[in-house]
Amino acid sequence: MQERQAHRQAETAAWQRLQQQELTKLHSAQHHLWFNVAAYLAISVIEFYLAIVGHSQTLRADALNNLAGIVSAALLLIGIFIARDIDDDDLMGRPLPEDLQQNGQRLQLTRFHYETVFTLITGIVMIAIAASVIFGGIKSLMNPQSQEVPRPITLVGAAIAMVIMLVVWWLNRRAGRKLQNAALTAAAQDSLSDALTSLGTLVAIAGALLFQLEWLDGVASIIVGLFILAAGVKIFRESSLNLADYFDPQAEAQFRQVIEGFDQVRRVEDLKAHYSGNVVTLDVIIAVDAQMQVKDSYRLGETIEAQMRRQFGIVDTDVMVVPA
């Protein structure tokens, strides 16, 4: 009994350390996303103004794309805020369990899901803006009277946007890898896509000015819209798979191989890994000698959990033991 109590205390302490590490990462991610908001806001204002002054449909599309970046970063900030709000006395207006000591870990894992939820919404917003940009470009091509060659000043807006977005992408990618944060990884993908679309905008405007092609501006805006659409679909796909409890089968096969390497484990009956935001949990059923004592099977489960945490960073492994 004392051994079990001591283990539970040690496990609680380990979870609190892991939780604090994850919350610290989320706090750092928030700072990066606020920088994203400031960068996107500056670019959007500059591009919208120059698109109006310079009569460029492509630059306007790029400005809308960067406006989507503001919305995306804001949604991710909301998701991270909910995930970090461990002192709240409710969860989205719903009451919390009275015994937080027992349910605290499960509750925090639930909170971490909100980061993924808002990442998913980000993908949906990007898809909607892409549809608007593509529709605007098609509408422009179908109405030749509205087409005109953009003015040279619009090149400045596209160049500024491209440089700033490359800086934002580099910072997001570096922070996303360091913190292993899905929100920053999504932001990095978004900002790289934005940098490429700004480059495409720059080339399209330069081509329209050089060859005096009025229709090129509309075509380029459609291409920009397709870039936005591709990035939005990718983010939506990855987030929806995460929320649908999909996990890479190859990674699960690695987990299975390590667990089957324990001498006392006859075989792994079932194994399922789960994402809760950026953290991974694991449920596994193992078959052992039917004569194994309960205490020994309990210790085996704790040994497996410790190994999975050390080797793969899995925050919680729930081991169920059945007779072989």
Automatic annotation (TrEMBL):
Residues 114-243 form the Cation efflux protein transmembrane domain. GO terms for molecular function: monoatomic cation transmembrane transporter activity. It is a multi-pass membrane protein. One of its GO terms (cellular component) is membrane. The keyword Transmembrane applies. It comes from the Bacteria. Belongs to the cation diffusion facilitator (CDF) transporter (TC 2.A.4) family. This is Cobalt-zinc-cadmium resistance protein. It comes from Levilactobacillus spicheri.
